[in-house]
């Protein structure tokens, strides 16, 4: 590594250490009082060492030095008052001697940074006016012709320094607000998604309650029927059938007690219609054609056979939600609904030829419900832009193995 590289690396490391030390100091609750005391002492020493013994303005200069540093102690509770006091004191010091103490300059930079980080520009902007005025007119009466250039350069550099300090604070405030707004948006979006997911789970549980309740009721009815209609049944067999019927009824009662409350969030009056399945897909497509005028067709491949009611209900709801999204986001688009009956899974595809999702658009809540339903049966779902155009929903619903 060359010598310049070593020097740059050393300077960067020193800068990082200085920044870390500054953060530790700023995190301490007593740092304003400590900084005010230290800077006040340094300012008084600087004024005392730089003054002539016969100078009658030394007491006033010492008072200005304290006024330009000590108010730093109250920046936590009275930041605007402290900033205004420091600005006035430094303006008077510039008018009297044409220079600031190093301690006073440090205090001014720190206070302007804090004002920019905590207050609006309507409060922070006027604090720069004394330095703007000095940069514009101060050197005209503070220096003769030979020293006017140097005096003006110093005034401009001072204005640039305090402006950078204030601008850095403002930038930090804006970044913090942007981060807070982004965090709020993420929290709201997460809350909405969680709310939608909970609602969809409630609807799923409510629908499955109907499906499972039907089967459990059939178990109880078949057990009672077998006991009453089988002639010459042994006593032990009849007792076991009674136990089966009682167990089924107890399970039905417990399930209704646990899941029946989910009906309270149902919209409208509950209906007595059975839960839909794949046999009702044609009716769903006809309804879609009549309501929105889209061209919809059903494509079926494989050996069609009855499936588990939960699988059929899940497939039906996925198609229903996908068609709703087409009507909402791609009106007039053609839709293909494809069912592939494989031995191990039912593969479902819904594709439209609409414009597809808008770049940067948000994912609809309907997809959350689709994923909840597919996960419930252990399947997989993908949804997104189609390869050429339009939108594609693809779901794989596993089927139980067929015994031979």
Automatic annotation (TrEMBL):
SUPFAM superfamilies linked to this entry: ATPase domain of HSP90 chaperone/DNA topoisomerase II/histidine kinase
UniProt xrefs under CDD domains: HATPase_UhpB-NarQ-NarX-like
UniProt cross-references to SMART domains, sorted A to Z: HATPase_c
Short name of one Pfam family: HisKA_3
Protein known as: histidine kinase
Residues in Histidine kinase/HSP90-like ATPase domain copies: 310-401
EC number(s) on file: 2.7.13.3
InterPro entries the record matches: HATPase_C_sf, HATPase_dom, Sensor_HK_TwoCompSys, Sig_transdc_His_kin_sub3_dim/P
GO MF term (any one): kinase activity
Lineage: Bacteria, Bacillati, Actinomycetota, Actinomycetes, Micromonosporales
Reaction(s) the record says it catalyses: ATP + protein L-histidine = ADP + protein N-phospho-L-histidine
Membrane-spanning segments: 61-86, 92-115, 122-141, 153-171
Keywords assigned by UniProt, alphabetized: ATP-binding, Kinase, Membrane, Nucleotide-binding, Phosphoprotein, Transferase, Transmembrane, Transmembrane helix, Two-component regulatory system
Chaperone recorded as keyword: no
Keyword Flavoprotein found: no
């Amino acid at each position: 590594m060359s010598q310049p590289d070593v020097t740059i690396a050393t300077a960067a490391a020193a800068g990082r250490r200085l920044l870390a030390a500054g953060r530790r100091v700023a995190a301490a609750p007593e740092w304003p009082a400590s900084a005010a005391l230290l800077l006040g002492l340094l300012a008084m020493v600087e004024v005392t060492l730089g003054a002539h013994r016969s100078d009658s303005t030394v007491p006033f200069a010492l008072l200005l030095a304290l006024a330009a540093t000590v108010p730093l102690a109250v920046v936590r509770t009275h930041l605007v008052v402290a900033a205004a006091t420091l600005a006035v004191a430094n303006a008077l010091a510039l008018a009297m001697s044409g220079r600031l103490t190093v301690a006073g300059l440090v205090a001014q930079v720190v206070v302007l940074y804090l004002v920019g980080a905590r207050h609006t520009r309507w409060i922070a902007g006027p604090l720069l006016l004394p330095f703007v005025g000095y940069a514009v007119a101060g050197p005209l009466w503070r220096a003769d012709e030979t020293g006017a250039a140097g005096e003006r350069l110093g005034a401009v550099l001072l204005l640039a320094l305090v402006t950078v300090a204030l601008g850095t604070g403002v930038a930090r405030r804006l970044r913090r607000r942007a981060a807070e707004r982004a965090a709020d948006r993420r929290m709201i979006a997460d809350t909405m998604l969680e709310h939608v997911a909970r609602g969809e789970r409630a609807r799923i549980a409510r629908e499955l309650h109907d499906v499972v309740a039907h089967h459990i009721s059939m178990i109880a009815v078949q057990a009672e029927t077998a006991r009453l209609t089988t002639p010459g049944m042994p006593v032990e067999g009849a007792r076991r059938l009674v136990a089966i019927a009682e167990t089924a009824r107890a399970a039905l009662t417990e399930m209704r007690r646990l899941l029946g409350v989910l009906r309270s969030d149902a919209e409208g009056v509950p209906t007595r219609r059975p839960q839909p399945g794949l046999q009702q897909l044609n009716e769903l497509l006809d309804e879609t054609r009549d309501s929105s005028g889209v061209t919809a067709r059903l494509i079926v491949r494989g050996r069609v056979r009855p499936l588990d009611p939960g699988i059929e209900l899940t497939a039906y709801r996925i198609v229903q939600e996908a068609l709703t999204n087409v009507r909402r986001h791609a009106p007039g688009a053609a839709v293909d609904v494809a069912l592939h009956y494989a031995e191990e899974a039912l593969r479902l595809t819904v594709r439209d030829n609409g414009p597809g999702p808008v770049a940067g658009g948000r994912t609809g809540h309907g997809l959350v419900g689709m994923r909840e339903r597919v996960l419930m049966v252990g399947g997989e779902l993908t949804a997104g832009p189609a390869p050429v155009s339009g939108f594609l929903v693809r779901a794989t619903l596993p089927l139980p193995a067929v015994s031979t």
